[in-house]
């Protein structure tokens, strides 16, 4: 059954997907076609590891193309919110203070497709993302994290740029 879930994307996230799709269709397909051609020229395909690897890569590329096309087809662009910069919304950069550890952290709230916690992008569906959406600078919120409820104070909200 096809995925028809709405995917929230920032403008930069959508551009990254469109660029990746173009690269896959224009460059990667050509590269894998050349790999398949060279592997076929080696003769017996039944015991040809290069041919099998090229076929696997072709399948991976085609699957990713379909995935990106489906995401883009069912995506909703997160418009730049011109509301006051004191409220957390999707697409904004947020600086938090972990009240228990006194540690500051900063990240951008994005849709699930763009989430990458290691590069400071967390999903609006993550425990912390859910907890901060709609909160204002100065408020302390509680996020239901896997390690238990955790209090965070919102220190700053800004445009993600």
Question: What are the defining features of this structure?
Answer:
alpha/beta; 161 residues; 3 helices; five-stranded mixed sheet
Distinct helical segment count: 3
Shape summary: elongated
Q: Ranges with pLDDT <50 over ≥5 residues?
A: none
* Structure classification: alpha/beta
Give the strand order, joined by hyphens, for the main sheet: 5-4-3-7-6
Rg computed from alpha carbons, rounded to a whole number of angstroms: 21 Å
Through-space gap between termini:
37 Å
Strand content: 25-35%
Largest sheet: 5 strands, mixed
Average predicted local confidence, pLDDT? 89
Say how many strands there are.
7
Instruction: List the secondary-structure elements in sequence, H or E.
Output: EHHEEEEHEE
Portion in helices: 25-40%
Describe this structure in words.
A five-stranded mixed sheet has the order 5-4-3-7-6. α1 (11-40) packs antiparallel against α2 (49-73). It starts with 6 loop residues before the first strand and ends with a strand. A hairpin with a 4-residue loop joins β3 and β4. By secondary structure, the chain is an alpha/beta fold. It is built from three helices and seven strands, in the order βααββββαββ. The longest helix has 30 residues, at 11-40. The protein has helices at residues 11-40, 49-73, 127-132; strands at residues 7-9, 75-77, 92-98, 103-110, 121-123, 140-145, 148-159.
Briefly, what is this?
With 161 residues, the chain is α/β, with parallel strands linked by helices. The protein has three helices and seven strands, in the order E-H-H-E-E-E-E-H-E-E.
Which SSEs are present, and which pair or pack?
Blueprint: E1 7-9, H1 11-40, H2 49-73, E2 75-77, E3 92-98, E4 103-110, E5 121-123, H3 127-132, E6 140-145, E7 148-159
Parallel strand pairs: 1-2, 4-5
Antiparallel strand pairs: 3-4, 3-7, 6-7
């Amino acid at each position: 059954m096809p995925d028809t879930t709405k995917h929230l994307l920032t403008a930069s996230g959508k551009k990254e997907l469109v660029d990746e799709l173009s690269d896959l269709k224009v460059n990667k397909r050509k590269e894998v076609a050349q790999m398949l051609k060279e592997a076929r020229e080696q003769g017996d395909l039944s015991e040809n590891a290069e041919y099998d690897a090229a076929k696997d890569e072709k399948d991976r590329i085609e699957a990713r193309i379909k995935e990106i096309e489906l995401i883009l087809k069912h995506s909703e662009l997160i418009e730049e919110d011109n509301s006051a910069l004191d409220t957390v919304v999707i697409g904004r950069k947020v600086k938090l203070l972990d009240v228990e550890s006194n540690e500051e952290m900063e990240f951008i709230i994005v849709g699930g497709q763009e989430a990458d916690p290691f590069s400071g992008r967390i999903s609006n569906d993550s425990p912390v993302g859910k907890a901060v959406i709609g909160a204002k600078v100065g408020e302390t919120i509680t996020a239901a994290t896997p390690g238990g409820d955790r209090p965070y104070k919102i220190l700053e909200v800004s445009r993600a740029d």
